[in-house]
Amino acid sequence: MREGDRTVHRPRWLGARGIAVLSASLLAAGLGSGFLVWQGTTAVFNSTTANGSSAWATATVSLTDDDSGSAMFNATNLVPSATGSNCITVSYGGTVATTVKLYASASADASTVAQYVNLVIQEGSGGTFNNCTGFASSATLYTGTLAAFTAAKTNYSNGVGTWAPSSTASKVYKITYTLDAATPNAKQGATTTATFQWEAQA
């Protein structure tokens, strides 16, 4: 194509209607750009609901007694048939149901005299440490020798007891000992010891 003396070359892809075609392409590009803007500003309908903050708290298991750290017995100069007893109040202050068990956590019997010390262990109500006045038994937990008790009742799983508190409560335990009337003369001056322990588990 000539314009005056100058030859004008158009790209072959435009042809005679190249300007119109190009304008249409630009218009399409402009519409596409506008579409993208519309997509980016569209609002979203939304709704939620919640039930508040959840929480998890552990239970407590707590045992105390009224012995002020003293031993239940410090019996001396025992002779055959000698007897004695003592009471102790055990209190539960936990927040979950449990069963309280009694066992011997430690013992010593080098002179083997424990086989002649007979025990009766009861649980009930009434009385306090060093004072069994008013004690009323609700169950007899053990009858037998001290030697057998310290050998067989050594932890929670094999301990004795029926008390099953579920909240703050107390139980009185009465332990009675008797030195067997048949204790042999060879056991003079002998000593045996045991530590009574109460435990609650949940």
Spatial order of the strands forming the largest sheet: 3-4-8-6-7
Strand count, sense and barrel status of the largest sheet are: 5 strands, antiparallel
* SSE series: EEHEEEEEHEE
| Helix proportion range | 10-25%
> What structural category do the secondary elements indicate?
alpha+beta
From the structure above, extract its key features.
15% helix, 202 residues, 2 helices, 5-stranded antiparallel β-sheet, 2 domains, single chain
Overview of the structural elements:
The chain has 202 residues and is of the alpha+beta class. The chain folds into two domains: 2-40; 63-201. It has two helices and nine strands; from the N terminus they run ββαβββββαββ. A five-stranded antiparallel beta sheet has the order 3-4-8-6-7. A two-stranded antiparallel sheet has the order 1-2. A two-stranded antiparallel sheet has the order 5-9. A hairpin with a 2-residue loop joins β1 and β2 (6-7). The longest helix is centred in the N-terminal third of the chain and has 23 residues, at 18-40. It is elongated, with a radius of gyration of 46 Å. The termini are far apart.
What would you say about this model in short?
This protein is of the alpha+beta class and 202 residues long. Helices cover 15% and strands 33% of the residues.
Write the layout of secondary structure elements.
Blueprint lengths: L1 E2 L2 E2 L10 H23 L22 E3 L17 E10 L6 E10 L8 E9 L10 E10 H7 L16 E11 L13 E9 L1
Antiparallel strand pairs: 1-2, 3-4, 4-8, 5-9, 6-7, 6-8
